[in-house]
Design a protein that fits this description.
It contains 13 helices and nine strands. By secondary structure, the chain is an alpha/beta fold.
Length: about 300
């Protein structure tokens, strides 16, 4: 598994392949959005977003790797904000299930006499006042959730599949800003964003947009990497979210690897989800499909519900 500086280098040098203007011209309304080299008409892009958001997001995703440097930088400056705007269109972030917990008294709540008894007795025997930080309280707290998103980069990662992955990354970052990780996988997993390491939504989206599809698929290895990342979290709920068709072509049994995970959800591509559905059924995972970038917030909300 590649992580940290090695992962960043792999993404920077290995996956951000350049796309020629001729290749971009095959996409719907590209010449309207970019009428000349180095230009990006934001009004025209806004019009396409209104008419066909999936096509617009796919186009932006592809332009972030344009051989035209000026166009590439313009697209990258817009991509994070656009993907996040789409991600925010889903249902509001869930607050979690409430529970009673023992917390430091300074954090608020009702004094827990049993949990504070030793501190009270020690202070009394020493004829001193008990310190606030020695006392414990009982308080209603929200259950927290940690998420690890696995993005399959082994197949086609251009256009809509790439935009779907970028919106999914933005959605996870928005819904769980304090406790999430993102791993891309093909023959080898690459940690795009590690659990417990701060990285802005825009930076995460840009890193995902740098990915390009290639190689075989090691789903079992990706699930093991997710388990390792989530092991760093102290959240009550730890969910691994797989965005993939789940066609594993490397040695290793994904069902066995899934058995070591607390909570598993699978999001398969609409129209090509037979293997993903079969894998979800065999592992007891929550399952849904996604039809395009604009459908991602609904799919993620469904599997997190």
């Amino acid at each position: 598994m590649l992580e940290g500086a090695h992962a960043a280098a792999a993404i920077r040098h290995g996956q951000r392949l350049k796309t020629t203007r001729a290749e971009l011209a095959r996409l719907a309304r590209f010449e309207e959005i970019s009428p000349a080299a180095g230009q990006l008409d934001q009004d025209a892009l806004a019009g396409l977003l209104g008419d066909d958001p999936d096509a617009a997001l796919a186009l932006v995703a592809m332009m972030t790797s344009a051989m035209d440097r000026d166009l590439r930088e313009l697209a990258r400056s817009l991509a994070g904000r656009l993907m996040l705007e789409v991600a925010r269109r889903g249902p509001a972030r869930a607050g979690g299930v409430g529970r009673i917990a023992t917390v430091p008294w300074a954090a608020g709540g009702d004094l827990d006499i049993d949990a504070s008894l030793d501190a009270l007795m020690t202070a009394r025997s020493g004829q001193r006042a008990v310190a606030v930080d020695e006392l414990q309280a009982r308080r209603w707290v929200r259950s927290d959730t940690a998420v690890c998103l696995l993005v399959d980069r082994s197949g086609s990662m251009g256009g809509r599949p790439l935009a779907i992955s970028a919106v999914a990354a933005a959605a996870v970052a928005w819904r769980n800003p304090d406790d999430f990780s993102i791993i891309s996988f093909a023959r080898q997993p690459i940690v795009v964003k590690a659990q417990g390491v701060h990285r802005s939504v825009e930076d995460v989206v840009d890193a995902v947009l740098a990915l390009r599809g290639h190689g075989t698929t090691d789903l079992a290895g990706a699930l093991a990497a997710a388990r390792s990342q989530l092991g760093r979290s102290h959240a009550n709920r730890k969910i691994t979210m797989v965005l993939s068709d789940c066609r594993s072509t490397e040695p290793g049994e994904p069902v066995d690897a899934a058995a070591g995970l607390d909570d598993l959800a699978v999001i398969g591509p609409d129209g090509d989800h037979v293997e993903a559905r079969r894998f979800a059924d065999r592992t007891g995972a929550t399952f849904t499909t996604v039809s395009g970038p604009s459908d991602v917030p609904r799919a993620i909300a469904d599997v997190l519900a």
